[in-house]
Every structure is written in structure tokens, then in C-alpha cells.
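Sequence only, no structure available. Ideas?
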Amino acid sequence: MKEHTPGPWDEMVIGRDNQFIEIENKDQSICTVLNFDTDENMFANACLIAAAPDLLAACEAIDAELMHLEASDLALFYQIEDEMADVIIKMRQAIAKARGETST
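Reply:
I predicted one. C-alpha cells follow.
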């Protein structure tokens, strides 16, 4: 897995007239979100970016639990997989994308 800058990432409004939001962790700048749209959209985008490490960790924890369940209770795993197949696929695709394992 490619390593990302550890979270938590926090958003911080910087710049004259809310021109951009700087996403930072305690040690460094992660990225800058420019305001090409409304202040509300810029803030929403910054919040989503700032939540990325937490979202990835949550998805990885759920996936690890599913793999543990598959090893320990196959019948229950198949029931969950059958009912939530689309969600599990999307979650695993998102994990792969966050790790840089896919091109889309």
C-alpha cells in the first residue's frame, strides 16, 4: 500500500475573502482547496478531503471484520455478502482507489 500522510487532517480557512482552505495535519500542509465555486462547496470539498484518512480507516476495519467473519462463520458471512454484495464491492473499490491500486 502506498503510504499517505497520517491523519487526522483538519481543515483551516486561510486567505483573504475565503479564497482557499488549507488542509493540514499537525505537521504539514496536505493540500489546498481553491474557491472556484461557492464558499459552501469549497467548505464541503475541504471537509470530505479532511475526512479521507478516517473514512479509509473505517472501510479497512469493516473489511478486516468481514474477512475475519469469513474465516470464523462462513454461513453468516455468506448471508451478509449476499445481502450487501454491492456495498461490499463499492467499499473494496474505494479502498483500492485510496491505496492507488486502481486508475479510476
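The CA atoms of residues 66 and 73 lie 10 Å apart.
Hope that gets you unstuck.
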